[in-house]
Amino acid sequence: MKKLFVIGGMGAGKSTARQALVDQGLPNIDLDQVGHDVLTWDTVKEELVAAFGEDILDENSEINRRALAAKAFVSPAETRKLNRITMPRIEEAFTDRVSELEREGHAAVVVEHSVFKNRASSLAYDADVVIAVLAPLDMRIERAVKSGWEETDVRRRIAQQITDADRIEAADVVFNNDSTPDELRNQVLAWWGEYSKDL
To answer: Does residue 9 contact residue 91 with C-beta atoms inside 8 Å?
Structure first.
């Protein structure tokens, strides 16, 4: 089964690219969603509270993601602390899902990977294709704010991510999303039409 990883900065249009492929019948895995899911695991909650304090829990004793983010993304050291707890669990959940899809006989899966750093040290180490979606920074910030994020939060998260130059270097395919969502969809579908001939 081919693993197609979609990478890109916040507000670049990864979800639009992923959805274009899902509309062609591909199953998909959103690693952000997997990350949210593992926050509900009791062992993960206990370890996060021990690392970051009781005040990351909401009134239902669930992890408040914004409260956690406010503490975990203040410095590289705090982010590493978060990753040490969550990343092995995310990898476990991801690997289980990939195995399940393989057993079901799918030819390919599309994986949205927002915290991609490089191929060697990420879940994309055995990706068949890394697809980078790029967009100008001001456009990305505007899109993220429009979808409900605080601008300062957006800028802080973008500062923690790799650069577009790094993404281009790691990618097999690059799409520039500086126009409309439809234009990006058309680019992705044209590429998929060619790539899928060999599946």
So the answer is: no
Domain-embedded: residue 34: no
Q: In the listed set 69, 90, 105, which residue is the last one of a domain according to the structure?
A: 105
Does the pLDDT at position 121 exceed 80? no
3-class SS at 122?
coil
Residue 118 sits in the same domain as residue 136: yes
d(CA 133, CA 71): 28
Residue with tokens 């180490």: 125
Tokens coding 17: 């690219």
Could you tell me which of 164, 139, 150 has the C-alpha nearest to residue 69?
A: 150
Q: Give the Cα separation of 129 and 194 in Å (integer).
A: 13
How many independent structural domains does the chain possess?
Answer: 2
Q: pLDDT for 31-90, tens place per residue? A: 999 999 999 999 999 999 999 999 999 999 999 998 999 999 888 899 999 999 999 999
Helix, strand, or coil (residue 44): helix
Structure-token pair, residue 113: 């990977």
CATH number at residue 142: 3.40.50.300
Q: Where are the alpha helices (DSSP H) in the chain?
A: 14-22, 31-38, 42-52, 65-72, 76-103, 137-146, 151-160, 164-170, 181-195
Q: Is 58 helix (H, G, I), strand (E, B) or coil?
A: coil
pTM of the model: 0.88
Does 9 map to a domain? yes
